[in-house]
Every structure is written in structure tokens, then in C-alpha cells.
Amino acid sequence: MVSPSTYFSFVVFFFCSSNFAFTTAAQTTSPFKKIYAFGDSFTDTGNTRSVSGPAGFGHVSSLPYGSTFFHHPTNRYSDGRLVIDFVTETLLLPYLPPYLGHKGNASHGVNFAVAGSTAINHAFFVKNNLTMDQTPQSIQTQLIWFNKFLASQGCNGSVSSSPECKAVFDDALIWVGEIGVNDYAYIIGSSVSSDRIRELAISSKTRFLQALLKKGVKNVVVQGLPPTGCLPLAMSLAPEDDRDELGCVKSANNQTYTHNVVYQNTVQDLRNQFPDAAIAYLDYWNAYAMVMKNPKKYGFKEPFMACCGTGGPPYNFEVFSTCGTSYASTCSNPSQYINWDGVHLTEAMYRALSQMFLSGTFSHPPFSSLTDRKQHV
Length: 377
Description:
The relative contact order is 0.15. The model is unreliable at 1-27 (pLDDT under 50). The chain has helices spanning 4-11, 83-90, 122-127, 139-152, 163-169, 181-186, 194-214, 232-237, 250-273, 284-293, 347-358, 367-376, and strands at residues 34-38, 109-111, 172-176, 219-223, 278-282, 302-306, 308-309, 329-330, 337-339, 363-364. The longest helix is centred in the C-terminal third of the chain and has 24 residues, at 250-273. It starts with a helix and ends with a helix. By secondary structure, the protein is an alpha/beta fold. The chain has a six-stranded mixed β-sheet, sandwiched between helices. The protein contains twelve helices and ten strands.
């Protein structure tokens, strides 16, 4: 059993197909012309690289990352595409360039998500001696980047009333991927309570969303947290008697489930504050749990083992020999695995989740209501 301090030091670093139409297969035009994305490593399409990202996964710029679809590393924490990539495909848009690498062409949007990012400002963790300086970015950092991007497009000020701002926001979808898992990881082994983290993380995300909505954005998607207790990292470190009905780590899943309940109430408050905006909540926790309850239905044979890792069954995960190290090996059939490297998911799992979000019942309201609304505005 790894000590809580070791778990704390290591876990924080980690969070650190075809198109499917909204309503008919004949759809040939997209109601959205651009996407601005935010989040952590589940959404990051290249703002982090091996030299700058979470140390536990210091090989994202090398194979086997990216091997399934792109056939080369793209600084995505997976073997292929992420949820945000399937969203762009569905909306008939190009893949989003990372903010830190874009060359000025942002006509179809930009991705501000960065691996290792937290919801709470980094200063809180520094104050409480919980800092990992390698990934100091937070959702507020991404807001600063977004404001700099807006200024580069000639859009200044808090309200998007100028022609330059309208050019940025018109026909735009704001996509806020999951963020907050790292915040809980920072406090493992400390005296800071998960209740305190939940309060501060949701407060920070609320301020972030309010700042965007005050600028005049009209279409927003926010993701809840996944059931982190189902990841090989958590499974390999938690005691065997800490399990829930999914076979996952009960304490970790309860933590993220409770977070999501409070977050959904906050999202509803934002809908009341900004009645002209459409805000969809994606139920990441229950979508993931649905797959775990019947993995074969979704084509998965290995619900718990990492495709890329070390150690073999039951989890193929060792904290100091992660995917990309010389000790790790990669499975030959990642499409049959839910987990890619022990913390991040395979392209196949991201595809399944994307379909559940965009065409299924795990978006509230349905994602199609945003696209229909946009087409009729």
C-alpha cells in the first residue's frame, strides 16, 4: 500500500469513428462556426508537452501516445482523439489548435485546456504547502489566456458589444471540460478537507463561467467530474475493501459524485442569472458509470486495466513506471480498453462518452437543443 504522502505527490500529476449527426444523418452544415475549449488533460490538445506537463506522464510528446488515430504523438493524453475532438468532428470543424501553439489562425476556435490544471487558484495550494510548481495553471489562468486572445482579436472590455467582439463570439460554442480532479488530488495526506476543496473549486468555476457569460456568450457546455475511483491509479492504491457497486474505489467516487451534485445546482443558478444563455451540463459521472455497468455493450473487454503501463493484471499500472517509460508496454487492441495509461482514457472510451453526451441522454438539456436553438436564432 502506497503511503498517503506518496499518493499525494504522484496523483496530482495526472490530471494534471465517424461523425454522428445531431438529428439526421443528412446534416451538412454546422450551427456553430468555432469552439473555445477549457479544462485539464482530458481536454488538452497540446498546451502541455513532455517538458512542461505533469511529471508522472512525461512522455506525452512521444509514442505510443497518439498511435491509434494520428499515428504520431500530438500532446494529447490518449492513444488518439479526445471528447473535444469528436465534438469538432460532429460540428464539422477542424481540430482545435492549442492556445500556446496557435499561429494566429483562430477562425474555428482555440483550446485553452492544459494538463495538470486546477479549478482553485495555485496560490491556495502554495499557501497550504501543497504546491507542485510544474503545473501551476488553473481555470483562472485559462481565463487570463482567453482575455489575452480576445485582445489580440481587437476585443477589449468586459462586454462583447464591439464588432471585433461579436466576430469572436458569434456562432461560438464555449466548451468547459471537466476540471477539479487535481484539486482533490493535491490535498491527499493533508489537513485540508474535501468539503473545503469542493467549496473553493465550485466557487472558482462559477466565477469563471460568470466572467464568460457577462461577455455575452450564449451557448455553453460544462462537464461534471468523472468517477475517478474507476481509474487504475485509484484502484491500485486504495485498500481492497474500499469498493462500490461498480467495483471501483468507493471513497473517490463518492467525492466526485457529491461535487457534481453541488455543481449542477450552481449551473442551474447560472441559468437563472443569465436567461438568454443556453447552458448544457454533461453528466460525465453517470455516463462513465453506465459503461462500467455493461462494458461489453460498448465493445470493452478490459474495464480496469490500463492499455499502456506496467505490471500486468489486474490494473497494469505502477506509479513509477507509467506509459512511455522503458518498462511499459502497450496493448495491441486499445479499442477494447477503457483506460489508456492508468489515469487517462482510450480514444474508444472518449468516443463512447461523446456519443452519450451529444446524441444520448447524458446532456441536460440535450445537446441537440443547443444546436436547434442556434439554428433558429
